[in-house]
């Protein structure tokens, strides 16, 4: 998933803010309004962004407009250390057993226990989402009619692991009200080049003309329509059959360049590339078509499932293209044939999650240059921006400042205020969080994640008509305070989850916009009556609570009437 910027010693000037470009240069902007029906233009900040793309944003979660059902939308200042609304996530990589399972061939109970450990890690660090790799190499962590079981489960490709890993992951994440985004690698077939090592009924062996070798790996040829259709069917099967919250792609489209090797797709270009002047444009067209079609098909299947991509952090350098960033590293537009800026402007994605894996002040790829560049681009279409963070560089020692990551989040707050919304951060990868090298992650939690956070809502996704719940009581019991909550919505309008807020003492009002008052969230158990235990309540202290209801895309109701402990 990871590729460093090349030529890191290149002396390229860096600026903390990118420049605005006139509307005539914003290629693809107008055509992007169709999918979202210009929903985000309803707010002045984003409407202004279509004219001059340097905008003054409010809280990242509310700058693009609060959902109609949200009765407490007054924003917190974006410079606040803690935000009530932000995505906080980690990648859980399965390819070559990077994170989970820790090794192939573990029995089902051990695999389950390991995954529960990663959910514990997420909760302990107040994360609210996990991006789990479920299709690392044209194989599956779920029973698929299109591709075999992954070898990273049992050690043998095609062997049933004895349980449903994706079903288990979704169920357990949702028990903790953590979003689970299923992470798919589209084109990679194998980490080696011999098709004979794949199971006999593998699609790459059934259709050898779909596959070529490059850089020591096998890939589906992105230029073959039948191969693209196969990949999409394999992904959509998971969307249709599992209650996932998102479909997530990483940075691997066409493979990263390998010195001395040429992509072996000249024949495919000759067959399918008549409408393109160059093979490079044709390759980008293949990826564009894949992304756009995937977006449309996900929304046609389940409109609430989010679609996001985590590309390499540099689209193009300004020395190559005046619309690019003031950087000097590798360029995804030219190296992976991934026109990531276009995907955002066209509105094909719900979120963009660029891997900005460099430190503040690195000349060739300055974090302080790239975050505002992406924020300006994302603000134009209302696409949410999550920043990919190189937590592994704290472990490896590339990041020498223990406060590097917490400084990143400080900068994201400033960019949200002055440029465009940054809606959250994602850490690569899970295994580096408990290691806590140099205390870098602990510092992030201490400085920015003191309290839980709700997921930012996406105004263009379909809202559900949930209603304000009734907080029946808040009763002191052994181990904390027990809340009983009544969901009074109709059977078709039940809440997905609930948010709990409290203040010390007896109060007539609880400010649900103050992040410090958010105690936690919990998933609905179904039915009308819910119960939740506040284990953080201190013995001998009275509290006043209110509860709100949330739909599955995190739109929030007004708060209940307050209840004081008794």
TrEMBL record:
Name the keywords, alphabetized: Signal
Q: Does the keyword Signal apply?
A: yes
Keyword check for Iron: no
Domain Glycosyl hydrolase-like: residue ranges: 86-401
Q: Kindly give the SUPFAM superfamilies that the UniProt entry links to this protein.
A: (Trans)glycosidases (SSF51445)
Q: Which Pfam families match?
A: GHL10 (PF02638)
Outline the segment boundaries, as ranges, of region: Disordered. Answer: 1-27
Record's protein name: Family 10 glycosylhydrolase
What is the native source organism of this protein? Promicromonospora umidemergens
Q: What is the lineage of its organism?
A: Bacteria, Bacillati, Actinomycetota, Actinomycetes, Micrococcales
